[in-house]
Specification:
The chain is built from twelve helices and nine strands. It is of the alpha/beta class. An eight-stranded parallel beta barrel has the order 1-2-3-4-5-6-8-9, surrounded by five helices. It binds (3S,4R)-3-hydroxy-2-oxopiperidin-4-yl beta-D-xylopyranoside (XIL). Belongs to the glycosyl hydrolase 10 (cellulase F) family.
């Protein structure tokens, strides 16, 4: 096939991009999105500071614009994200009791998931809850972890399952790409525990913001899949340019397609012009929407 989405679909996978509502007036941006991708993740528009900036007052305008465009194109939609320590409004960060944070968290999950009920393929229910250092399994300090305790993750997944039983529920994080890293082991142990105790979880999202993908990346995808969850590459971008970048992208795509339960790949943007990694050129299209060598290697590897 001649596009990323159609090539991925040949093996039952999707190939998506993060899209920002602020760029929808750029016709080349939208044309590239529509032509190449069959899935979307709103880059910022479904985050807590966008969807519930003040308590109980939900706003979905920018997210809805992305969702309705995607639906018109028959794309899958990944929801990103419900419970995260960043892009979190001050009113949540300032809540001081466990019951207050718990009520706010569950109300937020219900409010956002109900609005999109039946329309979201997979939700990143909890994002980036694990710490980068410390012993295996250490969670990052956040208002959720501090007030509710480590059980906030389980509670969020149970609330999410009840809110939209049709959506796949993912745990999403960065630096869990190396099969043997302590942070990876912590997430692996959590998923294994959730599966053993019947806590609802369907997928692990590997953000995969790379310099170089680890050499055991495929082994890592396979070890998560063996726990009985899907694996999705959720925020892929690779720094650099030229053949080195193209080669790294190829290895990422090959690692996914080698594992049946690696069900799709999302790149974190369409064009280098709008990448969140300013000063780098980590995406598949250059600033003029020309296909880069990395594009060709991805297309050939799908
Ligand atoms: C980034 C967006 O790309 C930026 O536009 C925003 O300013 C900050 O967040 N991990 C995530 C994403 O889960 O939500 C982040 O997106 C990148 C890192």
């Amino acid at each position: 096939a001649s596009t990323l989405g159609a090539s991925a679909a040949q093996s039952g996978r999707y190939f998506g991009a993060a899209v920002a509502a602020g760029h929808l007036s750029d016709s080349a941006y939208v044309a590239t999105w529509d032509r190449e991708f069959n899935s979307v993740t709103p880059e910022n528009e479904m985050k807590w500071d966008s969807t519930e900036p003040s308590r109980g007052a939900f706003s979905f305008g920018n997210a809805d614009r992305i969702v309705s465009h995607a639906q018109g194109q028959g794309m899958k939609i990944r929801g990103h994200t419900l419970v995260w320590h960043a892009q979190l409004p001050g009113w949540v960060q300032n809540l001081s009791s466990a019951s207050d944070v718990r009520t706010a968290m569950n109300n937020h999950i219900n409010g956002v998931m109900n609005h999109y009920k039946g329309n979201i393929y997979a939700w990143d229910v909890v994002n980036e809850a694990f710490a980068d250092g410390g012993a295996v399994g250490t969670l990052r300090s956040s208002v959720f972890q501090q007030r509710i305790g480590n059980g906030f993750i389980e509670e969020a997944f149970r609330t999410a399952r009840a809110a939209d039983p049709a959506a796949k529920l993912c745990y999403n994080d960065y630096n869990i790409d190396d099969a043997n890293a302590n942070k990876t082991r912590g997430v692996y142990n959590m998923v294994r525990d959730f599966k053993a105790r019947g806590v609802p979880i369907d997928c692990v999202g590997l953000q995969s913001h790379f310099g170089n993908p680890p050499s055991n990346y495929q082994q890592n995808i396979a070890q998560f899949a063996a726990l009985g969850v899907d694996v999705q590459i959720t925020e892929l971008d690779v720094g650099g340019s030229g053949s080195a970048q193209a080669d790294a992208y190829r290895r990422v795509v090959e690692a996914c397609t080698a594992v049946p339960r690696c069900t799709g790949i999302t790149v974190w943007g369409i064009t280098d012009k709008y990448s969140w990694r300013s000063g780098d050129t980590p995406l598949l299209f250059d600033g003029n929407y020309n296909k880069k060598p990395a594009y060709t290697s991805v297309l050939n590897a799908l």
